[in-house]
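[job 0412] stage=fold_complex status=start
inputs:
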Amino acid sequence: MNPRIPTATFSNNAFMERKVLETFKKDKWVLYLCADLIMLLQHTIKKILGQVIHDSLSIPVTEEELLIQRTKAEFEGDYTLVLFGLVKKHKLNPEQIGATIGLAACQKEPNFFKSYNLVKGFLNFSLQDHCLLNFLDNTYGNSQYGKALAHEKRVMVEYSSPNTNKPLHLGHLRNIFLGWSIAELLKERGFAVTKSCVVNDRGIHICKSMIAWQLFAEGATPATTGQKGDHFVGDYYVKFNEAHKAEIEAGIAAGLTKEQAEKEAPIMKATQQLLQDWEAGNQEVLALWNRMNQWVYEGFDATYKKIGADFDKTYYESQTYLLGKKFVEQGLTNGVFYKKEDGSIWIDLTPEGLDEKLVLRKDGTSVYITQDLGLAEQKFQEYRYEQSIYVIADEQNYHMKVLQLILQKLNKPYAKGIHHLSYGMVELPSGKMKSREGTVVDADDLITEMIEVARAKTEELGKVKDFNTEELEKLYHTLALGALKFYLLRVDPKKKMVFNPQESIDFQGFTGPFIQYTYARIQSILRKEYPTATLPMENKLEKEEKELLLSLEQFPSILDQAVAEQNPSVVATYAFTLAKLFNSFYTQHSIISAPSDASRQLRLRLAALTANVIKKSMALLGIEVPNRM
RNA sequence: GGUCCGGUAGCUCAGUUGAAUAGAGCAACUGCCUUCUAAGCAGUAGGUCAUUGGUUUGAAUCCAAUCCGGAUCACCA
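[job 0412] stage=fold_complex status=done
writing structure:
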């Protein structure tokens, strides 16, 4: 029989227990989280210590007031209560209350706390091994570990949202990996998620590609050239810019100013004409527009498939760009907007410290913000979301602020649920990527290069010589995308990052393949032997075993943290730390040849649970793990 | 100029709801494959946490000022 475990949170029923928390982290956006209380040791410790402090010192404390952290490696213990807060608030002596609390806690729950020690204001507790063994035995075979029960909170995550005039580049990849991962993290923690994509399929940019195609293609198509559709169309966008540049130079040579030359360039005038024809519904123009967009979509789909991105709903700007006009009428009637003499319509955001903002041009056409207003409404009508997350680069911080503010002023109930997941741009050592100057790192090219690197490394190591071609291709793909996705997701989204194409993405250290490798190693053991029988509770834990277990136990709260902060790098860092802990354990202790049956059962379970958690963590980042590599 | 974001080891980054001697990876150097996969492990070296002042028992973290870098403030999207 298992020893008694001293709180209700460890009972079987507690597995179903849920708690809804409100988390405010940095921004005012409210997020509801569900935490499975069963596994959270920290929570249990707080509960016990709160009671102990109340009983032994007659001080009422809330759990929020207690600061519990993992004990630093150089001190003895597992978890530490930091006493300074209590000491300050109640003007107490840390030596005295530390001793009192430590003693009382160990006496009250001897099956939970093994011992305590006091160093300055830090009260360190060691936990009884069997608490952790119990956790391990209950969890190791559970592939659902980390998953929260479903609840009714609906969230929409919009990401990718490309223009249709050029192929996806490295910046899109950061956006896509981020958006996809956040959506999966939300799902894992019980949210009902809709992944959406807004395709900017109309406007001057696509007309540029169209005009260049008309002028220079001589009827060529992706089919006749064998080129991927998005690249094909992107090439004409580049050709437009080359032609435009030449015409500008000619204009300047003829005595025009730069601005005049840009505007008056024949190819630019033709492009504007094309846009007007498009808006007027010119059949021929629409046919070409449809045809070229179709080429692009085929290209995008191939890339999405390759990187494992998917969407539940796609909005096309051509179908939604007029929606916002209703808003403008509404806002005019209730006085939120006002009309200037020339007929243009504005909103005054100066009371909020922003500027006056145009919402409708004097010719009655809508601007960028107008479209987004309409689309927000459309999304809400269709999905009744409580939160709507926009994964958009930080250059649009102002735009998103304005969008939310206008919706608030219009009293839209969904305004407060709008959240801009703002991420930093990916730059090159030479600075920003510029598609006009051809300095972008193309997504497809980059993936191809990564696959080559994966192939070279794998061949060099020669560990999978028995793999057939198909298995090898699959492995290279898994490793290449693992390296790339991890590279882009391991850093805080809001920080801009520099990508150096010269230094290829690593396969060692803090990387995807390092973690994949750890997983493959574990699988190699589990193929030989999978844990059976029962786990003897008299096992004494080695230092490395305990470290691993304490880390594994934190997994659900790591996921909550990632969701609350909207930050997959939290999961990436965790997965890396976990893999490192395992590798350290692995080199010091043999699993198959453990000193006893009891120990072997323990270590097999540790290996199995580590593999599960690694697999789940990586899956939430969109990264697959191989059984062998 | 207004607003916002950032500055931590040679490089890339963690740590920023204040807490023990500021941590990883890469690069450099030293060890470890006859034993479950060395894409690994163990170790050495590397820091004025941009600067200055303040709050505090305690500051990379909070406040103020300054310096540097970036974004944005379009009848572009």
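[job 0412] summary: The domain at 40-127 of chain A is CATH 3.30.1360.70 (Gyrase A; domain 2).
[job 0412] exit 0
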